Amino acid sequence: MVRLALYHVAVEGKTLDNVLAKATTNEGIYKDHLMQLYNIVNDANLTDELRRIVNSQDYVRLGSPISNFHLYSAGLVIQDNNKVKPRCRLYRDYFADVLQ
Q: What is the gyration radius of the CA atoms in the chain, in angstroms?
């Protein structure tokens, strides 16, 4: 994701501020990646679990270890003692918006 951002800055002449400002939108450079993750979450019926995670500032204990496994396998969360939180701010901001 960093490489993609640097590519758009270097080759397409975009500013890093512009890239970051639109990162979580359908105009952003990560739109395909984020939509793919959304489809994974939606297909696995994990939208409620992910909504809880992105709306919390702390680690969250989910009701099912299977949910932990799927979200972790998709790269959306990091784990600590069977609790999870979003892997990065991009995921937190995007999913907080689309899962309202």
A: 14
Which has the closest alpha carbon to 45: 28, 22, 62, 21?
62
Q: What is the mean pLDDT of the chain?
A: 95
Please write the tens of the pLDDT for every residue from 59-86.
999 989 999 999 999 999 999 999 999 9
Distance of alpha carbon 46 from alpha carbon 68, whole angstroms = 10
Q: In degrees, to the nearest 5, what angle opens at C-alpha 59 toward C-alphas 66 and 82?
A: 40
Q: What is the pTM of this model?
A: 0.90
Element (H, E) at 42: helix 31-43
Identify the three-state secondary structure at position 22. coil
Look up residue 4 and give its two tokens: 């993609």
